[in-house]
Structures are given as C-alpha cells and as structure tokens.
Write a structure and sequence with these properties.
Length: 340
C-alpha cells in the first residue's frame, strides 16, 4: 500500500451508540479471579468513579469464548465463527526449555468437538501449529469455510481438506456471510528479541508430502481480521503481536483482541496500535498463556509474554479503553462482560 493510504470512513452512528450504551468509555481493568472463574456469572467490580452494570442476558445475540492462544469462538444466533482454533494443546517443550520442532501433530477430536462446536466459518491468521493444528479436522468434519493465506490453502489441501471449502485472501477483502462481515487485514508475524521468528516461509503449491510435525508448518504470511456482526459490535482479531500501521488505520473496532508481545522488537507496539485502531472501547490481551496446558483449568502465563506491560501500555496510550484479561471458562457477552 502506498504512503498516501486514505483512512477508512468511520462509522460514527453505530460506534457511538455501542461506546455509550454497551461498551462504555470509562478506563478499567477486568482480571479473572478465582471467584469469577468458578462462577462465570460474576462480574468484576467497576473501577472507582464508574457505575457498575449487570452482565448481559442470554438473549444477547453475540457471545465470545476464548480458546486460548489467539483463538476465539464467536456465536451469533446459533451460528459459530472460529478464529485460530487450537484446542488440542499438546506438549512440545516450548515452555520448559526442551522445545522439539519434530513434535508430531495430533488432534484430540472429542476435545475439539466440545470446545469448537459446529463452525460455519474459520478464520486463520497464519499456519504455525498453535493456530492451524485443529483446523483440518474441523474443516473435514463440519464442512466449514476456511479463510486464510495461500500457504494455509496449500497446507490444508495436502491434509485432505476439500479445496472448495477454502478461500484465499491477502488483505483488503470484505466478505459478506449474511448477518456478519469479515474484513481481511494484511499483517505481519510477531518478532522475538533477535527480530526473527519460528519457521518462516511461504508455499505456492502443496508440499510434496503432507506435514506431520510442527516444524513442517511454515508461517506463510500473516493476516488479521475484523468481524462485524450486523449492527452489533465489530471485533479486531490478531494472531501475532505485530501489525502494519497503514493497514489497520481507520478500522475503529469496538473490541480489539490484541496479541501480547514476547519482546520489544516492534517499535512502540502498543501506542502505535491503539492510535491506529482509534482507541477501541474494549481491549482484550491474547496469546499470553501457556498453550500446552488444558483449557479446563485457569490460564497459566507464558513467562516470555509481557502481559502486565501490555495492560499498562494500553492504559497509558488509550485511557478510555476498558481492558479485559480473559479466562478460558467464561462466556462473554457482546460487551466482553461475563454472561449470566
């Protein structure tokens, strides 16, 4: 995109209504506690100086469930959309210093069925195992449409997914699924302290043999997505903790699922992102958990992800945003408050 990129036209009507009536504008921080994890109907106390409000009722049309890592399940009137659904969460040694790129891919089918439901659309940010691993099984058993990069397309074809189910995007496409829209956003993968990352590379054709290990799944370019549910909330979804500023400027989501970085390699990551997105009403940190422990327990932190730093950065750069640190076992309403 050229440097004269024009900002997208804001949606003041819907956004202002959601900001005041649903999302609110007061700064705050909602952290999962032992009580709220055990009882998802409890709401975190409102920050000082703001009025508390009840959780939305079951009649609310949109709900969110964090699947760990960057994954989300989004339900709209009985229709399910998934983003980066990685539920199996098998050990690779990543979090104890014994990482093995030759770890074999595996899917716990019963577990995936329980958490993922029956999706009609799956959005895939990139092709690393902690984003793609469970997608082939879900695609083949549910017939869901998969939206992702050309690399994701070739990998899924090699793994037996029907090409007719796959939609390749590059960023800029706005797809209408009747009741909600999906905008693909060109993005980039997060960087480690050496300004590099695991398993780079792209595919322009299916691999000679279907991948069987995590090291055989290249990143294959990275996407972000913005999903808008009719006249309801819009949500920005990241699979990696980096972005292309010109591509996200003007999106103005109501909710932003923001990946937590593991290094400071990206210049002014949080303030630039908050500014480009227009200070979302709600910011939800993701990809800060140890994704090799089951979803049945509370999230354990990835020691390499600076969750506290991201929260502090959001509060400094976008004080009107409410920060919600999610829990696996809580179902959230359209305003990212626990549902009754």
């Amino acid at each position: 995109m050229n440097p004269d990129h024009t900002q997208r036209t804001p949606r003041p009507g819907r956004r202002s209504v959601l900001r005041t009536a649903v999302l609110g504008t007061a700064a705050g921080l909602a952290l999962p506690t032992a009580a709220s994890a055990a009882d998802p109907t409890r709401t975190t106390a409102a920050p000082s100086g703001t009025a508390s409000r009840p959780a939305p009722s079951r009649a609310d049309p949109v709900s969110w469930r964090w699947l760990g890592t960057s994954g989300w399940r989004m339900d709209l009137d009985g229709r399910t959309v998934l983003f980066d659904p990685y539920v199996t969460r098998f050990p690779t040694g990543l979090f104890d210093g014994t990482f093995d790129a030759a770890t074999e891919l595996e899917t716990d089918e019963g577990l995936v069925d329980r958490h993922a439901g029956h999706p009609e659309v799956m959005l895939v940010s990139h092709s690393h195992w902690d984003h793609l691993n469970d997608v082939p099984y879900l695609a083949k058993t549910t017939g869901a449409r998969v939206v992702g990069t050309e690399t994701t397309y070739h990998l899924l074809c090699s793994l037996g997914v029907d090409p007719a189910q796959l939609s390749v995007v590059r960023g800029g496409e706005v797809l209408d699924f009747g009741g909600y829209t999906v905008e693909a956003v060109a993005s980039v993968h997060s960087r480690n302290k050496n300004h590099s990352y695991f398993s780079p590379g792209t595919l322009n054709a299916p691999p000679a043999t279907a991948p069987t290990t995590i090291g055989e799944l290249p990143e294959g370019d990275t996407l972000a997505f913005q999903v808008t549910f009719g006249n309801g909330p819009s949500v920005f979804l990241m699979g990696g903790s980096d972005f292309i500023e010109r591509e996200v400027t003007g999106l103005r989501p109501d909710i932003a699922m923001v990946a937590v970085p593991s290094s400071t390699a990206t210049h002014r990551y949080v303030p630039r992102l908050m500014g480009a997105l227009g200070s979302p009403g709600v910011v939800v940190p993701v990809h800060w958990d140890n994704f090799e422990v089951p979803l049945s327990g509370p999230p354990l932190r990835d020691p390499g992800a600076d969750l506290d730093g991201l929260v502090a950065g959001v509060r400094a750069a976008s004080p009107a945003s409410r920060v919600v640190v999610p829990d696996y076992r809580t179902v959230y309403g359209p305003d990212m408050r626990p549902r009754r």
